[in-house]
Amino acid sequence: MKKTYVKEGDQNEKIEKTAKIGEKIVELDKSVSISETAEKWLKETEKLPFFMQNYDKTKENTAIDAIIALQYEGEPLEIAENFKYHGNECYKAKKYQDAIEYYTKALKTKAGNGIEVACLLNNAACHMELKNYRQVLNNCYEVLKKEPNHTKALYRSAKACFFLDRLDESLKHINQCLKTDYNNDTFKSLKQEVIERKKYLERKFKEAYERKNMSFIKKKTLEKALKERGIIIKSSPIEQDMGDVEVCLSSPLDITSILLFPVIFLYPLVLQSDFIKQVEETSTIQEQLDLVLASKPQWDKNNEYSASNVEVCIETKIGDMIKVEKNAQLLDILANKVEVLDGIVRLLILPKNEIDSWIDEWKIKQKS
């Protein structure tokens, strides 16, 4: 249950209100029988407003209803002022949601423009603390409908717009504030913040545009280079996250620069593989074998895998498996013959004495 605050004011009025509350409690107290045990007595006293630990809004309580009803006794302005007072107390205690409830109750009394403007602005202040910036604007715009040049409403609107990155609107509001108080340091400070934020966002937008534009140019340059060289890139049915592994040009904006391919070397008989991230299109297969088989692999138990003792094969775009010349350049092997899946060249490496039988077996499996 929310605490009820009594506004400072006329002493007689305070006494009268206190008396009314007392009468209600006394009436209820008469219905409370003194029980035989202390436990029962305490349980019954907890039903009285001044002894309550918790308040269940779903249950009827005559005394509580009487106290709540007192908030609405009097003229609309008096009632509104009372709610506003409670709202101010909650605001000071940083209970912003409770303060909003009180200010909203004050607004519902329709007590006139003066107090309505004050409560709308106070509501805006609470929502500002809660970072409900759109609600701040809603409250301030209601004020500006009544008083278009209200400085506090304009300033809070400018601040809310700033936090929402609606910077042109923010500048419009703050400039209007400065028309009435040009030397106000708070207004000047906010205007400077808005200008700096606007410059920052414009710079970031420009950088993003340039990056996107540059990325587009690089992509088109690569596509043209691949097409001119007869390289076919095919994507997997399911999109793969390849990270930074990709076909690229050594000079991304120069179509005549060297193409660089990621290459995976597969050893199907032993279920092993090697990978080189960038292989130049002019490099020969023998050069790459000399690199990956420069030393004996740990898994080569029978000493079958050396650069001079292996052959290389590759699957073509028509689904055939062919041996490739080891002195051929990578580009010669790929051009118009092979689909490069996801931009990665796949070369199969087998011992010389086993490659023919393996290819024959592979073709049989493909037909079945």
Task: Describe the 3D structure.
- This protein has 368 residues and is of the alpha/beta class.
- It has two domains: 11-194, Tetratricopeptide repeat domain (Serine Threonine Protein Phosphatase 5, Tetratricopeptide repeat); 248-367, Phosphatidylinositol 3-kinase Catalytic Subunit, Chain A, domain 1 (Ubiquitin-like (UB roll)).
- It is 54% helix and 12% strand.
- The chain has helices spanning 11-30, 38-45, 62-70, 76-92, 96-108, 113-129, 133-146, 151-163, 167-180, 185-229, 285-292, 330-334, 352-367; strands spanning 232-234, 248-249, 259-267, 272-280, 310-315, 321-324, 339-341, 345-351.
- The strands form two sheets. Strands 2, 3, 4, 5, 6 and 8 form a six-stranded mixed β-sheet that branches.
- Strand 3 (259-267) and strand 4 form a beta hairpin.
- It is elongated.
- Residues 1-11, 31-35 and 66-70 have low confidence and may be disordered.
